[in-house]
Amino acid sequence: MNDVITELAELLEQRKSSDSSKSYVASLHEKGLNKILQKVGEESAETILAAKDCVSDDNESKNAVIHETADLWFHTMVMLSHLDLRPEQVLEELQKRFNISGLEEKASRKN
Fold first, then answer.
1. pLDDT of 80-106, one tens digit each?
2. Which keywords, in A-to-Z order, does the entry hold (predicted)?
3. Phi, psi of 64 (to 5 degrees)
4. What pTM was estimated for this model as a whole?
5. What is the 3-state secondary structure (H, E, C) of 38-54?
6. Of 35, 11, 15, 12, the residue nearest 23 (C-alpha)
């Protein structure tokens, strides 16, 4: 699974400096962080709405959640790229949390 994330991250880095008239990713970078964050917010809201409407025995509503989550992850990865961060850094952070309860991890952030 990480291969997909790694491949997408590499592709996003390549397209970052592409011609913005030919690359959606390049056009987002050209428009700047605020536009990228706007897209992350829009996709987040669409993911939430799709999840809210999801019915456990309805494949169409489940597919909508998958589709919107993919859009959210994609735009989040564009954001990371714009900030010169890598998805591996996020995965490393998640890895650190494996043996820590969520309550402990949350409490540790206050310090």
1. 999 999 999 999 999 988 888 778 777
2. Amino-acid biosynthesis, ATP-binding, Cytoplasm, Histidine biosynthesis, Hydrolase, Nucleotide-binding
3. -65, -40
4. 0.87
5. HHHHHHHHHHHHHHHCC
6. 15
